Amino acid sequence: MAAIAFWGLTCEPESNYSQVVEQAFRLTNIAIDPKTKATKGRVSVTVQAGEDEFVIANLLLGQVEQCVVDLTFNEGEEISFSVTGSATVHLTGNYIIDELDEFGDEEGDENDDDDDDDDDDNLQWDESVAEDDDDDGEGPEIFFDEEGNPVDAEGKPVDLSGLLGDDDDEDDEDDEGDDDDINGDDDDDDEDDEEAEAEAAAELEALQAALNKKRKAPAPATSSKPQQKKAKVEEKEQQQSKGGKKNKNKKK
Fold first, then answer.
1. Which of 38, 37, 29 is nearest to 10 (CA)?
2. Residue 130: pLDDT band by 50, 70, 90 thresholds?
3. Which DSSP string corresponds to 20-79?
4. 41, 80, 117, 217: which sits with the fewest CB atoms below 10 Å from its CB?
């Protein structure tokens, strides 16, 4: 990422400013000094790079007094700015400082060292894998000719059907074993389901029996308070009636 620092140059009327660029910079704005006493006329700003000279801005006093540009000058270039007219002109922009120039070399060396270490580790791992493959002894080394046909180290054709057939047989056996395991698991699941259904049916039957028994039991006899009160009143009236009959018999 580039760091940015301010760059500026003040050019007096009818003057030249030559320099060898020590640090790359970018010219972005050209403006007439507001203290300029002249009120009319044209002001031209030119730059000479090598043997060529170019007009980079034409300004009109009182009308167009500022111009935005985008020019970059690299380190080592010989340039010369000049102003034609009756006004002082300000050239402004910014330096271009590449931080990689200061820090990039060291970081780059460190990254290169890390990459080299990773490459060495990968090479060692690959060699160990290659040794393991050689120790397996499962078959001859197989190469391919220009036409893509399999050959051995001496360039003789190699029949791969036998090798592929053995692998297919082993795969078939593994698949059959897996199918047996799956079928066995399914049988166990079926037995578990049947036991769970039997237990649920037994619990339902017991609950139904309990409900039936509760329905057959007689409800306890209860009487409300008004009925009890009415019975007491009737009993009291009967007693009073009997007492009145006794008094009448005594009077006679």
1. 29
2. very low
3. E-SS-EEEEEEEE-TT----SSEEEEEEEETTEEEEEEEEETTTB-EEEEEEEE-TT-EE
4. 217
Q: In terms of pLDDT, which residue wins out, 168 or 56? A: 56
Helices (H), 84-160: 99-136
SS3 220: coil
Please name the residue that has the structure tokens 């409300």: 224
Cβ pair 89, 35 in contact under 8 A:
no
CB 96 within 8 A of CB 24: yes
Taking CA 32 as the corner, what is the angle to CA 26 and CA 34, rounded to the nearest 5 degrees? 130
- Please give the mean pLDDT across all residues of the chain: 75
CA distance 106 to 112: 10
Reading the block at residue 206, the tokens are 């017991």
β-sheet bridge partners, residue 64: 60
Q: Which residue has the tokens 């050959």?
A: 151
Q: How far apart are CA 252 and CA 208, in angstroms?
A: 73
The one-letter amino acid code at 8 reads G
**What is the residue type of 198?**
A
CA distance 174 to 196: 33
Give the Å distances, CA to CA, from 226 to 38, 223, 231, 232, 233.
123, 8, 9, 10, 11
